[in-house]
Amino acid sequence: MLRSRRRARGERGATLVEAAIITPVFLLFIFGIFEFGFAFRDYLGVANVTRDAARESSVAGDVTDADYRMLRAVQRSGAALPEGAIDRLVIFEATGPTDQVSATCKAGTPVVGLCNVYSSSDLTVPEVEFGCQELALGDPYNSPDRFWCPRDREVSVGSGLDYVGIYVQITHEYITGFFGNSVVFEDQMILKMEPQEQ
Questions:
Q1: Spans of all domains in the chain
Q2: Which of 91, 154, 155, 171 is the most buried (most CB within 10 A)?
């Protein structure tokens, strides 16, 4: 009887040691599933935003509010992303389907005749602020689309259609911090402008 009591105590101690070893590994596994799930959601969100923005830009062509329409498409398709997650959204003139966004535009600096750069805060800019307007005496604002003005985009088949590129970058913030503080996701898509009737 004395031996069975000692054996029971020894087994309880072994169980406690095993639990102390397994519990952190199990929790790390569970947290990893959560972190991967949320990160993957944001990764897919970036892909959706990029594709929807490229399609809208291609279809909108050279209409005055083309960038405004593109931002509305981003707002709709980016609903699954955390609020304010978009660090940078660049619409740029590409030379072909395999072109890359320029380093200057990618870094967040608009370039005249090449790219317009937007962030999450630009998703709420009213339509009246678009239209390629430069600040003049008495004007309350510069248009955010003035660098690569939609009116300058070539949408005539006879002249050769422009390629429009979209680059999107977001920062995904980790919840637990076990895998770092954050990770940056980026995506790019280039489409040929849809021909417009002149």
A1: 2-192
A2: 91
